[in-house]
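With this grant's support, we have settled on a layout for protein records. A representative record follows, to show the layout.
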Amino acid sequence: MDADSSLDHVFFPDSGVVSVVAVYPDGSIIEMATIGREGCAGVQAVFGAKSSSARLLVQIPGSAAKMSRAAFTRAMGSMPSFRSLMYAYVQAFLEQVMVSVACNGAHSLKERLARWLLMMRDRSDEEALQITQNLLAEMLGVQRPTVTNAAGELERAGLIERGRQQVTILDRQGLIEASCECYKLVRARVASHLPKTYINTGTTIVTFLMVFLIQNSQNRDSAAIQVKLDELIRVSTAHNSFVGIEHLNDNELQEIRTKCERRAEAEKAGEASVKRTGKKAKRAADSAVG
């Protein structure tokens, strides 16, 4: 997905890694954040955006669930649990972007390279990363010879091994020590916002999306059944208009239920009035006979 392109769908990665990059007028790019199974691509849709403000590049291929922007917007409006999760992810995403901006200006290329490799590793669960040095140079905003020298330092330290279009992490703990503090900082902040979808737990945000969808469907079906039962109790023959109301949204169902309850209360009041009138008439008749 390119910058300024139509944001028609939101993608929830189940595996693989997506980079969010800024694009400059001369065509150069630099990475601002990475997205894995803890989040979604197209996060701007949370705020109702209809176009992407950044370029999205798939760095490590994988699978993802696709949701139309219209369906995403409906879920945000009708599913409080889903909305809360998306807001939490937005906070985690912004934390990552802010730390990345500071890191690019404050730390050495070797430290930033170590952090980038660790972040890719956290989201892929593979020690061997299918990436090229050209890609590394683009993501870190430097020339290839510069990133080649930095990668060489890490390789000579026994932390990584470079191959054809591949970088293998040999010593993760050593790579963490070679990285700047930004790596641990981002992990801690993401974990604080998304404790159940943390990037290294194997749990994906897709799992929670499916749970929310199922729960919402069950809740709506239960509400629809209850409304239908109310109508069957109120009258001997249910209205045909009640067929298919399980397809309505929560607000529409509540509106129908409220109307049914009001009608029932009005009928109860009417029945009570008739009974009182009948009793008075019976007493009057008994008095006349006596």
